UniProtKB/TrEMBL annotation:
<feature type="compositionally biased region" description="Low complexity">
    <location>
        <begin position="63"/>
        <end position="75"/>
    </location>
</feature>
<feature type="coiled-coil region">
    <location>
        <begin position="124"/>
        <end position="158"/>
    </location>
</feature>
<comment type="similarity">
    <text>Belongs to the UPF0749 family.</text>
</comment>
<feature type="region of interest" description="Disordered">
    <location>
        <begin position="1"/>
        <end position="75"/>
    </location>
</feature>
<feature type="compositionally biased region" description="Acidic residues">
    <location>
        <begin position="32"/>
        <end position="43"/>
    </location>
</feature>
<dbReference type="InterPro" id="IPR010273">
    <property type="entry name" value="DUF881"/>
</dbReference>
<dbReference type="GO" id="GO:0005886">
    <property type="term" value="C:plasma membrane"/>
</dbReference>
<protein>
    <submittedName>
        <fullName>Uncharacterized protein YlxW (UPF0749 family)</fullName>
    </submittedName>
</protein>
<feature type="compositionally biased region" description="Basic and acidic residues">
    <location>
        <begin position="1"/>
        <end position="19"/>
    </location>
</feature>
<keyword id="KW-0175">Coiled coil</keyword>
<dbReference type="Pfam" id="PF05949">
    <property type="entry name" value="DUF881"/>
</dbReference>
Length: 312
């Protein structure tokens, strides 16, 4: 509101723009336009990180104190063992192991082929004989295993322990008595008849027959009523033969206890004791029996030099 000179109230004057004088270049003023508010991306103000406060400091409302990370648990003993046993082989070590495996497989195949070639070269009767021997040996081992298991069970039983010990001692004494020649024996075996030919048989021929009987598994042997033991010997004497200091003469009647079939096959092997006796002109025959009797006994003498080793 402006007042005039008379001091009377007047209406508000209209403001007019100043008109430029003639000959004066009008001044152009920029027209102010209303500034449009430019959209600015909202900025998320992140609160500055603050150091963790102690328990006795005041905490911000709604915020919980951060928990310290739990210390790592030490590895257990088995986990350490597993880490130590974890394979750490290099590529060269792996290649070396594969080569060793291949070589071992090749050797196994070669051994199997060699065994197969050896068996394929045998005749049918030889294969049958070999199979029978293996089967019989397996049966014997099975029987021994069963006997030993029965003895073990008896010894483990408290009630029968003493009786089993006595029975075992008796059995061992009988076995030692048969093997040493102190006791007579009976069982399956063979009867062997040997006689001189045009010329008397030598002691070496009879000793070879004794060795083959032992190798074939004969457990008790006698010839012409004399029990043969580990110390038995044959020597030539004046056209005859002396056995353990006693003179014996043809015919020589042998009795042996053992597996009859095994003994019979062993004695008839080409180049063995009986074929050699026949080559020298002598007579030799074998008879397989289900049961034979070896009734000759020997009383062993006292050892001159050997003595017990006090359990050592």
């Amino acid at each position: 509101m402006s007042k005039d000179k008379n001091g009377a109230g007047a209406k508000p004057d209209k403001t007019e723009p100043n008109k430029p004088d003639a000959g004066q270049v009008p001044r152009v003023e920029p027209v102010e336009t209303p500034e449009t508010e430019q959209a600015e991306p909202e900025q998320v103000e992140s609160a500055p990180a603050e150091p963790a406060q102690r328990d006795d400091d005041a905490t911000v409302a709604g915020a919980e104190p951060a928990e310290a990370p739990a210390p790592a648990e030490p590895a257990s003993g088995w986990k350490r063992v597993g880490q130590l046993l974890r394979p750490r082989g290099t590529r060269s070590e792996l290649l070396t192991g594969l080569l060793c495996l291949a070589l071992g497989f090749a050797l196994a195949v070669q051994v199997g082929q060699s065994t197969g070639d050896q068996l394929s070269s045998l005749r049918q009767d030889e294969l049958v004989r070999l199979l029978d021997e293996v089967t019989q040996r397996a049966d014997q081992l099975d029987a021994e295993v069963s006997d030993l298991e029965a003895i073990r069970d008896d010894l483990q039983s408290e009630d029968g322990r003493d009786q089993a010990a006595r029975d075992l001692a008796q059995q061992r004494a009988e076995q030692e008595g048969i093997l040493s020649g102190r006791l007579p024996a009976r069982g399956p075996g063979v009867e062997i008849h040997v006689a001189d030919g045009d010329k008397p048989l030598e002691a070496q021929s009879l000793f070879n027959l004794l060795e083959e009987l032992r190798n074939a598994g004969a457990e008790a042997i006698q010839v012409n009523g004399v029990r043969l033991v580990t110390t038995s010997y044959f020597v030539d004497s004046g056209g005859g033969v002396v056995l353990d200091g006693a003179a014996i003469s043809s015919p020589y009647e042998w009795t042996a206890i053992g597996d009859p079939d095994t003994i019979d096959r062993a004695l008839e092997i080409p180049g063995g004791a009986l074929p050699r006796i026949r080559e020298e002109g002598g007579d030799a025959t074998t008879t397989v029996e289900d049961e034979v009797l070896v009734d000759a006994v020997r009383i062993p003498g006292e050892p001159e030099h050997a003595e017990p080793a006090d359990g050592k």
